[in-house]
């Protein structure tokens, strides 16, 4: 199943049909992509999404990064609750959104590694940035 995993229907269908899933995405909120792939994500070096920090953060930026990470639990959990309930109805067992995402075979990340900060990735995470850029006029 080739899907954007933000809406969890693709991962649910792939798991239900027992077929591999390929995720095509730009960014995932709450660092769930790193958590699902068990990729190291040190908060003191990897800036959180939408903070506009670089990989060379000051102490204050690192503290802000940590606080945002703590807050993500409270504002991200409700986003995926409906999908977790749907997965429970289908599979008849408790499944978290992270569990569903962890079954992804390949993650095609629309990041351009030239413009992004350096961060660890797993072998099944592939940068394919620049595929949706227009020629400059």
Automatic annotation (TrEMBL):
Keywords: Glycosyltransferase, Membrane, Transferase, Transmembrane, Transmembrane helix
A GO MF term: UDP-glycosyltransferase activity
Locations listed in the record: Membrane
Main location: membrane
Topological relation to the membrane, as annotated: Single-pass membrane protein
Pfam families reported in the protein's UniProt record: UDPGT
GO cellular component: membrane
Family: Belongs to the UDP-glycosyltransferase family.
Protein name, per record: UDP-glucuronosyltransferase 1-1
Natural source organism: Cariama cristata
